[in-house]
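Thread: Callose synthase 3, structure

OP (GT): Posting the sequence first so everyone is looking at the same thing. Length is 102 residues per the record. Can we get the structure tokens written out before standup tomorrow? I want them in the notebook alongside the other entries.
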Amino acid sequence: MFDEVETHIEAGTLIKEFKMSALPSLYEQFVQLIKFLLDNKHEDRDQVVILFQDMLEVVTRDIVMEDHILNLFPHVKLGLEAQAFPIRTLGLIPVPPYCCAQ
């Protein structure tokens, strides 16, 4: 994803290839994520997972044009949102982080 964005920035085609209207929504989600991470509460784990899923949805549905989705996110199966970002089931993101667990 980052390489694709960087390529379009260098080519001057970022605004043509990606819809920027959803950036305020994504920004708000990043702010909420930072708050969760700063609070570092284990009980917020489910909310962090949901937030990551919401962020992925904003990127895949609202920012990335349809013709780029499969190139950028080959693991995403359109229409199968529950399988698109399996953080919870894989246990990839511990909350609180292992380094900071009390």
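GT: Both are above now. Quick notes for whoever picks this up: The CA atoms of residues 13 and 27 lie 21 Å apart. The helical segments are 2-11, 14-17, 23-39, 45-63, 66-72, 81-84, 87-90.
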